[in-house]
């Protein structure tokens, strides 16, 4: 395991049989340029020093690990949160966006292009673009624009151009399609900054590496707080960037159980959930091989989650490999589980979580009740400011 990060992905971008780069030749040429630049630039002392300074003085890292005393007393066990909601812009997304923005600056690019679902990646990338003095174009499905109005406003204030996507289900998958097409129009002056550990190589690797700081910090902090490692570490999984960042800090710890939580939404009917690792099959989408919710022709099926950042029909290729190898377990939480955790954490701890993160909190609450003598560490990947209007308008104020 000591050489894990050097072994995965391999030179072709594969994690076992997943990942790779299934894209047109003209785009593959640009991907190879980005890969070469990443390996040469991002490993330099100058790049690393600048990124560390940004993380400390601009992002406010390290974010704390917090013991949920009230929630633990309520549920049982010992529940801890890695507070990525306290990272600048309110989620883990800025960790890789500042890295991608810095790489774009070194490459001499003029524009950052990306998709966003919940809007956290869009806000983070717009923030990075403002910081580095670059143009920014964010593609977002019309359904998500309506759900995540606060983040749309933030993106515009930060100077980003928000492109509404009206095709298909008008959510995250269609936003990725649209952003890729925009990038293809001018790959010389722009760079596509994908929002998760998905897409063609080198994006899954780059995003994981930039998010690795979350797992490193959390492991050190937990040991400092308790003198031991957590029994279980959990995070929500859509594309899987926050989970991959968190899990990467514990992959070498055989006694730490790693659990990813996918969304089963309204039901297990087609179009009612987005649990691709739990219910998908092997396929290719957006330039990489993954577990995919697909029809008989291999086309992505419609997906849904109450959390806009999780409604993606595939998952990161590294997650797929870790699932097959049994190094990470993948379970699910539905909309009701999510809402219950959303309101409970808000009322009991004074922390309003993102709906995405609430899926992992839901699992932690159940785990703690079943394992009163064990500890669980949750990656609280984002705060719920972006979700409050949507939740109140559709579900009202709930008692716990």
Can you describe this structure?
The protein has 400 residues and is an alpha/beta fold. The protein folds into two domains: 14-56 and 93-204, Rossmann fold, CATH 3.40.50.1100; 60-90 and 212-395, Rossmann fold. The chain has 16 helices and 14 strands. The chain has helices at 4-7, 25-41, 45-59, 69-75, 94-107, 120-132, 142-147, 149-157, 172-185, 203-226, 241-247, 276-279, 317-325, 335-349, 355-370, 388-395, and strands at residues 14-15, 18-19, 65-67, 78-83, 111-116, 135-141, 161-165, 190-192, 232-236, 257-265, 281-285, 288-292, 329-334, 375-380. The strands form four sheets. A six-stranded mixed β-sheet has the order 3-4-14-9-10-13, with helices on both faces. Strand 11 (281-285) and strand 12 (288-292) form a beta hairpin. The longest helix is centred in the middle third of the chain and has 24 residues, at 203-226. The model has no long low-confidence stretch (mean pLDDT 96).
Descriptive terms for the model:
six-stranded mixed beta sheet, 18% strand, globular, Rossmann fold, four-stranded parallel beta sheet, alpha/beta, 400 residues, 16 helices
Uncertain runs with pLDDT below 50, 5 residues or more?
A: none
Run of helices and strands: HEEHHEHEHEHEHHEHEHEHEHEEHEHHEH
CATH class of the largest domain: Alpha Beta
Strand order of the largest sheet: 3-4-14-9-10-13
Mean pLDDT: 96
State the CATH architecture of the largest domain.
3-Layer(aba) Sandwich
The CATH topology of the largest domain corresponds to Rossmann fold
Helix content: 40-55%
Number-wise, the strands total 14
**Whole-number tally of structural domains:** 2
Rg calculated over all Cα atoms: 19 Å
- Strand percentage: 15-25%
Number of helical segments? Answer: 16
The end-to-end distance, rounded to whole angstroms, is: 43 Å
Task: Please state the structural category.
Answer: alpha/beta
Indicate the overall shape: globular
Sheet with the most strands, sense and barrel status:
6 strands, mixed
